[in-house]
Amino acid sequence: MTDAYREGLDRRPANYQPLTPLSFLARSAQVFPERTAIVHGKLRTSYADFYARARRLASALRGAGVWPGQTVATLLLNTPPMLEAHYGVPMAGAVLNTINTRLDAAAIGFILDHGEARLVLVDSELAPLLRDALAAMNGPKPAVVEYSDPTAVGGGRVGLGEDYEKFLRKGDANFNWKMPEDEWDAISLNYTSGTTGNPKGVVYHHRGASLLATGNVIHARLSEPMVYLWTLPMFHCNGWCFPWSVCAAGGTHICLRQVRAGPIYQAIAEHGVNLMCGAPIVMSVLLNATDQERRDFGQKVTFLTAAAPPPEATLAAMAEAGFEVIHLYGLTETYGPAVLNEWKAEWNALDGPGRAAMKARQGVKYAALEALEVIDPDTMEAVPADGKTIGEIMFRGNVVMKGYLKNPKATEEAFAGGWFHSGDLAVKHPDGYIQIRDRSKDIIISGGENISSIEVEDVLYKHPAVAMVAVVAKSDEKWGETPCAFVELKTGKTATGDELIDFCRERLARFKCPRNVVFGELPKTSTGKVQKFELRKLAEAV
User: Fold this and answer.
1) What confidence score (pLDDT) does residue 411 get?
2) Does 170 share its domain with 296?
């Protein structure tokens, strides 16, 4: 570039502002002040009031001694204060740490210590859990503000901290919040599951949050009228950034305290919900609903799901029930979804198995992601796009985390070679779509042959009696490892282990088939993902 394109063309306030999702709420409050932004039980909050309450929260936090760069944690369900925190906390210049409400007290105490939380917003129902977590802390205890949800059944304020509404009244609805000084400033802190030790704190910046949120607007096709139902926990990757995306589109947030079939169908029918997100377990909740829980609705509901690709039978059942399923892929370190199965119209002409094969692929990168590649981690070269050669999925771009809080070693390892290493093993098809074959730790090596647990699971899902399945490695003196299948059966259906093994042998090479089948409920994380590390322990006892 010549000097002529540098001289006198400096960055200045008139032509450069740091990217942040906070401006989305300010815009919608200006453009749609009377539009309903939040529905929670009988509560209706307009965009003007949502913006005012977020500014009150920011002001009250400052008054409570919370300053830019400090952490404000939440132990909240999908309720209005959680939405307000996604704006009010960073409007105060602080960093939002939404804590998984299903963790135990020791894990929560570790997170509060590690993140150095200055203040915690807690739901009254979870206040006893927080009290135990505070007792487990080693460092200074944060201040507590308690939210008593009028829609909660039974109970009331525990009195662990100041009442949330009283706290807000201390704040100024016209608080003059400021944009971040630098779009690289931290906006939120999200902890990984910590299945093999203490969780790691993943730090998001304003730029990434803004770009991923607008990426959702594009790829989830957010447009008016848009009514979003909160079935995805907002503590999970900041709700995949949808607290910001929905406001960018001027949509309506329908809060849901608990994921139950009856309330979900009621919300869809009464409020015209047309978009929702969730793990595969949410689809099971919808499809297993009783006739009394179901409600008729006329609109098509887009359902965004991550984790394992839905089986063909599940996709067909969801379509029949009125839901269009879009498969996403991402990690906590990529702000949630950064890859989607971009569906092509010509695939609709395929037969059922053909469509299912296309649906099983994770897909292509979000527009907000700079690069997505399947790479040999030893050579750091891209694998051939042949649909066969396995490599590791790696990311590069603005929607990749800043790094792990207070963990430079893990950060450097994750970013080795100029890419973020996901730990997921995949192939790349000739058309550029990627497809996960396994987590690097979940690949089964039997007699020197690599076995994809996902491939075995896909076959078992085709059995009419199987509701959920997970396949893990079991130690074997002869082969090193062999596949062990853990199976949940559908209600009213029966099957034997031998029957399922024979079913696999008809469809897979014999060395890929499970040697053992264990029936029972699968252990899952709070977001519905199967905890394979627990199953690996159980497999050794079989």
Assistant:
1) 97
2) no
| DSSP annotation string for 402-456 | SEETT-HHHHHHHTGGGSEEEEEEEEE-TTS-EEEEEETTT-EEETTEEE-HHHH
**Is the residue at 410 inside a domain?**
yes
- State the Cα–Cα distance between residues 23 and 29, nearest whole angstrom: 10
Tokens describing residue 303: 């359902």
pLDDT digit string, tens, across residues 448-470: 566 878 889 989 999 999 999 99
Return d(Cα 364, Cα 366) in angstroms, integer. 7
Determine contact, residues 521/491, Cβ cutoff 8 Å: no
Sign of CA dihedral 287, 290, 293, 298: positive
| Residue range of the domain that includes 431 | 259-439
Beta-strand pair 480-489/466-476: antiparallel
pLDDT value at residue 197: 56
How many C-beta atoms surround the C-beta of residue 23 within 10 A?
A: 16
Specify the number of domains making up the chain.
3
Distance CA 269, CA 531 (A): 34
* Same domain (yes/no): 173, 88: yes
- Cα–Cα distance, 192 to 487 (Å, whole number): 26
Give the Cα separation of 513 and 452 in Å (integer).
11
CATH of the domain at 70: 3.40.50.12780
Tell me how far apart the terminal alpha carbons of the chain are, to the nearest angstrom.
Answer: 66
Q: Determine the pLDDT at residue 195.
A: 42
Q: Beta partners for 489?
A: 466
**What is the per-residue pLDDT across 167-220, written as a single tens digit (0 to 9) for each?**
999 999 999 999 999 999 999 999 986 544 578 999 999 999 999 999 999 999
